[in-house]
Amino acid sequence: MDELIPLDPRARLLFYLQAFTRLFLFWVPASIGLAASITFLTSSLLAGVIAAGCWFFFVFLLALWMPSLSYARWGYALRTDELLIAHGVIVRRVTAIPTMRIQHVDTRQGPIEQWMGLARLQIHTASGVGGDGVIPGLSLATAEALRDQLVEVEGDDGV
What we know:
Strand content: 15-25%
Number of helices: 4
Shape: elongated
Number of strands: 6
Largest sheet: 3 strands, antiparallel
Distance between the termini: 29 Å
Strand order of the largest sheet: 1-2-3
């Protein structure tokens, strides 16, 4: 496989911010709910607190560990006839999108991405079975240049 182009170095911080946002907005309330459920089922507050504490500690360790691994595993390569997108920590996924089948390409920015000057590139194809692709953590200039480069490819209409 060709050498993959890594994401912008700021994407690592983006992945950490996203992981800790999920941690505090989803996993903290879920852990509290777990504690309440176990306390109700066992009639033991101590059992509920210990189980939820262990679960939250595990999820916290994942939030510390996974963003860096995920960042290291993301990459893309634009060949003459296809765009390769590779990612995945536990399950490695390499997607090859034929440039002739790309229907349109978007750049998107969430609030954190806007603040960091990053964007994600969303590629849409005619396929309805997972033929689309996304590349997160690109600098805005890189995302726009790659978008323009993919749009310039002359292909069929995908039909």
